[in-house]
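Notebook, bench 3.
Goal today: get a predicted structure for Copper homeostasis protein cutC homolog from Poecilia reticulata so we can plan the truncation constructs. The sequence was checked against the plasmid map this morning, with no discrepancies at the termini. Length recorded as 252 residues. Pasting the sequence as submitted so the record is complete.
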Amino acid sequence: MMAQSILLEVCVDSVESAVNAERGGAGRLELCSSLMEGGLTPSLGLLQVVKQYIKIPVYVMIRPRGGDFLYSDQEVEVMKKDIELMKMQGADGVVVGALTETGGVDAGLCMELIAAARPLPLTFHRAFDMAFDPAVALETLISLGFERVLTSGCDSSALEGLPVIKRLIDQAKGRIIVMPGGGITERNLQRILEGSGAEEFHCSARSSRDSAMKFRNSCVTMGATISAPEYGLKVADASKVRSLNAIAKNTL
Protein backbone atom coordinates (compact mmCIF):
# COMPACT_ATOMS: atom_id res chain seq x y z
CA MET A 1 0.00 0.00 0.00
CA MET A 2 1.32 3.47 -0.87
CA ALA A 3 1.44 6.26 1.71
CA GLN A 4 -1.49 8.67 1.56
CA SER A 5 0.88 11.43 0.56
CA ILE A 6 4.49 11.56 -0.44
CA LEU A 7 6.58 13.70 1.88
CA LEU A 8 8.98 16.25 0.40
CA GLU A 9 12.07 17.19 2.42
CA VAL A 10 13.92 20.31 1.25
CA CYS A 11 17.54 20.99 2.20
CA VAL A 12 18.00 24.67 3.01
CA ASP A 13 20.87 26.86 4.19
CA SER A 14 19.07 30.16 4.82
CA VAL A 15 15.95 31.51 6.52
CA GLU A 16 14.65 32.70 3.15
CA SER A 17 14.95 29.20 1.68
CA ALA A 18 13.30 27.70 4.77
CA VAL A 19 10.33 30.07 4.49
CA ASN A 20 10.00 29.43 0.73
CA ALA A 21 10.18 25.66 1.19
CA GLU A 22 7.43 25.68 3.82
CA ARG A 23 5.31 28.03 1.70
CA GLY A 24 5.67 25.65 -1.24
CA GLY A 25 4.39 22.72 0.83
CA ALA A 26 7.55 20.98 2.05
CA GLY A 27 6.85 18.50 4.84
CA ARG A 28 10.26 18.76 6.50
CA LEU A 29 13.47 20.78 6.28
CA GLU A 30 17.05 19.57 6.40
CA LEU A 31 18.95 22.58 7.75
CA CYS A 32 22.59 22.94 6.64
CA SER A 33 25.26 25.43 5.86
CA SER A 34 27.43 25.20 2.71
CA LEU A 35 25.18 23.34 0.29
CA MET A 36 28.08 23.79 -2.17
CA GLU A 37 29.94 21.18 -0.09
CA GLY A 38 26.91 18.93 0.14
CA GLY A 39 25.78 20.45 3.45
CA LEU A 40 27.63 21.07 6.71
CA THR A 41 26.49 21.80 10.28
CA PRO A 42 24.48 25.07 10.34
CA SER A 43 25.01 27.81 12.91
CA LEU A 44 22.95 27.88 16.10
CA GLY A 45 21.77 31.35 15.10
CA LEU A 46 20.38 29.99 11.83
CA LEU A 47 18.49 27.23 13.64
CA GLN A 48 17.08 29.65 16.22
CA VAL A 49 15.80 32.10 13.62
CA VAL A 50 14.45 29.36 11.32
CA LYS A 51 12.53 27.90 14.27
CA GLN A 52 10.90 31.32 14.82
CA TYR A 53 9.59 31.38 11.24
CA ILE A 54 8.80 27.72 10.55
CA LYS A 55 6.20 25.23 11.80
CA ILE A 56 7.26 22.07 9.91
CA PRO A 57 9.95 19.81 11.45
CA VAL A 58 13.55 20.97 11.10
CA TYR A 59 16.20 18.23 10.98
CA VAL A 60 19.72 19.55 11.50
CA MET A 61 22.74 18.33 9.53
CA ILE A 62 25.65 17.39 11.78
CA ARG A 63 28.73 17.29 9.56
CA PRO A 64 31.81 19.14 10.80
CA ARG A 65 33.62 19.41 7.44
CA GLY A 66 33.43 18.50 3.77
CA GLY A 67 35.25 15.52 2.30
CA ASP A 68 35.04 11.92 3.49
CA PHE A 69 33.07 10.48 6.40
CA LEU A 70 35.98 9.05 8.41
CA TYR A 71 36.19 11.18 11.55
CA SER A 72 38.91 11.81 14.14
CA ASP A 73 38.25 11.75 17.89
CA GLN A 74 38.21 15.57 17.99
CA GLU A 75 35.70 15.71 15.14
CA VAL A 76 33.51 13.26 17.05
CA GLU A 77 33.70 15.57 20.09
CA VAL A 78 32.55 18.46 17.90
CA MET A 79 29.64 16.44 16.45
CA LYS A 80 28.46 15.37 19.90
CA LYS A 81 28.69 18.96 21.20
CA ASP A 82 26.83 20.26 18.12
CA ILE A 83 24.06 17.68 18.62
CA GLU A 84 23.71 18.72 22.26
CA LEU A 85 23.46 22.42 21.36
CA MET A 86 21.07 21.91 18.41
CA LYS A 87 18.82 19.79 20.62
CA MET A 88 18.67 22.62 23.18
CA GLN A 89 17.71 25.06 20.42
CA GLY A 90 14.72 23.02 19.27
CA ALA A 91 16.00 20.78 16.46
CA ASP A 92 13.27 18.23 15.60
CA GLY A 93 15.69 15.61 14.31
CA VAL A 94 19.34 15.06 13.53
CA VAL A 95 21.09 14.04 10.29
CA VAL A 96 24.42 12.21 10.70
CA GLY A 97 26.66 9.73 8.92
CA ALA A 98 30.02 8.08 9.55
CA LEU A 99 31.98 5.29 7.87
CA THR A 100 34.92 3.05 8.76
CA GLU A 101 38.03 3.19 6.59
CA THR A 102 36.91 0.03 4.78
CA GLY A 103 33.57 1.60 3.81
CA GLY A 104 31.26 0.09 6.40
CA VAL A 105 28.84 2.09 8.55
CA ASP A 106 30.75 3.09 11.71
CA ALA A 107 28.29 1.49 14.12
CA GLY A 108 30.24 2.37 17.27
CA LEU A 109 30.42 6.07 16.40
CA CYS A 110 26.79 6.10 15.23
CA MET A 111 25.73 4.68 18.60
CA GLU A 112 27.52 7.56 20.35
CA LEU A 113 25.79 10.11 18.12
CA ILE A 114 22.40 8.42 18.58
CA ALA A 115 22.89 8.51 22.35
CA ALA A 116 23.72 12.24 22.14
CA ALA A 117 20.63 12.91 20.00
CA ARG A 118 18.15 10.86 22.06
CA PRO A 119 15.14 11.07 21.95
CA LEU A 120 15.27 12.84 18.57
CA PRO A 121 14.80 10.81 15.36
CA LEU A 122 17.85 10.31 13.17
CA THR A 123 18.47 10.30 9.44
CA PHE A 124 21.66 8.76 8.02
CA HIS A 125 22.85 11.07 5.23
CA ARG A 126 24.51 10.37 1.89
CA ALA A 127 27.65 9.01 3.55
CA PHE A 128 25.60 5.90 2.74
CA ASP A 129 26.39 6.40 -0.95
CA MET A 130 30.10 6.03 -0.17
CA ALA A 131 29.59 2.69 1.62
CA PHE A 132 31.24 -0.46 0.25
CA ASP A 133 28.09 -2.63 0.32
CA PRO A 134 24.73 -0.82 0.42
CA ALA A 135 22.70 -3.92 1.33
CA VAL A 136 24.89 -4.63 4.37
CA ALA A 137 25.00 -0.92 5.30
CA LEU A 138 21.19 -0.77 5.24
CA GLU A 139 20.89 -3.68 7.69
CA THR A 140 23.38 -1.96 10.02
CA LEU A 141 21.31 1.27 9.96
CA ILE A 142 18.13 -0.70 10.69
CA SER A 143 19.75 -2.47 13.66
CA LEU A 144 21.05 0.88 14.98
CA GLY A 145 17.52 2.32 14.90
CA PHE A 146 17.82 5.04 12.26
CA GLU A 147 14.47 6.44 11.14
CA ARG A 148 15.59 6.96 7.54
CA VAL A 149 18.49 6.96 5.11
CA LEU A 150 19.04 9.56 2.38
CA THR A 151 20.53 8.02 -0.75
CA SER A 152 21.15 8.61 -4.43
CA GLY A 153 21.44 4.84 -4.86
CA CYS A 154 25.25 5.11 -4.60
CA ASP A 155 25.40 6.94 -7.91
CA SER A 156 25.94 10.55 -8.97
CA SER A 157 22.18 11.22 -8.90
CA ALA A 158 18.99 9.53 -7.72
CA LEU A 159 17.92 8.98 -11.32
CA GLU A 160 21.11 7.07 -12.15
CA GLY A 161 20.92 5.21 -8.84
CA LEU A 162 17.25 4.31 -9.32
CA PRO A 163 17.73 0.50 -9.63
CA VAL A 164 19.70 0.46 -6.35
CA ILE A 165 17.13 2.71 -4.60
CA LYS A 166 14.37 0.32 -5.67
CA ARG A 167 16.35 -2.67 -4.35
CA LEU A 168 16.96 -0.90 -1.02
CA ILE A 169 13.27 -0.01 -0.59
CA ASP A 170 12.33 -3.64 -1.32
CA GLN A 171 14.98 -4.84 1.15
CA ALA A 172 13.85 -2.39 3.85
CA LYS A 173 10.25 -3.72 3.86
CA GLY A 174 9.18 -0.70 5.92
CA ARG A 175 11.84 -1.20 8.64
CA ILE A 176 13.53 2.07 7.66
CA ILE A 177 12.50 4.90 5.32
CA VAL A 178 14.65 4.99 2.18
CA MET A 179 14.52 8.58 0.91
CA PRO A 180 15.87 9.27 -2.60
CA GLY A 181 17.86 12.47 -3.01
CA GLY A 182 20.47 13.87 -5.35
CA GLY A 183 19.65 15.86 -8.47
CA ILE A 184 15.86 15.48 -8.13
CA THR A 185 13.97 18.01 -10.27
CA GLU A 186 10.54 18.46 -11.83
CA ARG A 187 11.87 16.68 -14.92
CA ASN A 188 12.81 13.39 -13.25
CA LEU A 189 10.72 13.21 -10.05
CA GLN A 190 7.89 11.16 -11.51
CA ARG A 191 10.28 8.53 -12.90
CA ILE A 192 12.09 8.31 -9.55
CA LEU A 193 8.90 7.93 -7.51
CA GLU A 194 7.27 5.44 -9.89
CA GLY A 195 10.47 3.49 -10.37
CA SER A 196 11.27 3.21 -6.66
CA GLY A 197 8.00 3.27 -4.73
CA ALA A 198 9.56 5.84 -2.36
CA GLU A 199 7.24 7.60 0.10
CA GLU A 200 9.59 10.50 0.82
CA PHE A 201 12.06 12.37 -1.36
CA HIS A 202 14.70 15.04 -0.84
CA CYS A 203 15.72 18.00 -2.99
CA SER A 204 16.94 21.59 -2.83
CA ALA A 205 14.39 23.03 -5.33
CA ARG A 206 16.55 26.08 -5.79
CA SER A 207 16.73 28.75 -8.43
CA SER A 208 19.45 31.34 -8.93
CA ARG A 209 18.96 34.92 -7.99
CA ASP A 210 21.33 37.76 -8.72
CA SER A 211 22.95 39.67 -5.88
CA ALA A 212 21.60 43.14 -5.07
CA MET A 213 25.17 44.50 -4.96
CA LYS A 214 25.70 47.49 -7.29
CA PHE A 215 29.43 47.80 -6.63
CA ARG A 216 31.28 44.61 -7.59
CA ASN A 217 34.95 43.76 -7.26
CA SER A 218 35.68 41.15 -9.90
CA CYS A 219 39.33 40.67 -8.77
CA VAL A 220 38.44 38.93 -5.53
CA THR A 221 36.84 35.57 -4.75
CA MET A 222 36.23 34.37 -1.22
CA GLY A 223 36.68 30.62 -1.53
CA ALA A 224 38.93 28.07 -3.17
CA THR A 225 39.44 28.08 -6.94
CA ILE A 226 36.29 26.03 -7.47
CA SER A 227 33.92 28.37 -5.72
CA ALA A 228 30.36 29.56 -5.94
CA PRO A 229 29.90 32.80 -7.88
CA GLU A 230 30.32 35.69 -5.42
CA TYR A 231 27.35 37.64 -6.78
CA GLY A 232 24.80 34.88 -7.32
CA LEU A 233 22.56 33.39 -4.66
CA LYS A 234 20.76 30.09 -4.82
CA VAL A 235 17.50 30.07 -2.89
CA ALA A 236 14.76 27.48 -2.48
CA ASP A 237 11.93 28.46 -4.80
CA ALA A 238 8.37 28.13 -3.44
CA SER A 239 6.93 27.57 -6.91
CA LYS A 240 9.44 24.77 -7.60
CA VAL A 241 8.55 23.13 -4.29
CA ARG A 242 4.86 23.50 -5.17
CA SER A 243 5.24 21.84 -8.56
CA LEU A 244 7.37 19.01 -7.13
CA ASN A 245 4.61 18.41 -4.59
CA ALA A 246 1.97 18.41 -7.36
CA ILE A 247 3.98 15.82 -9.30
CA ALA A 248 4.26 13.67 -6.17
CA LYS A 249 0.48 13.81 -5.62
CA ASN A 250 -0.23 12.87 -9.24
CA THR A 251 2.19 9.96 -9.07
CA LEU A 252 0.26 8.24 -6.26
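The radius of gyration is 18 Å. The mean pLDDT is 94.
Flagging this for group meeting.
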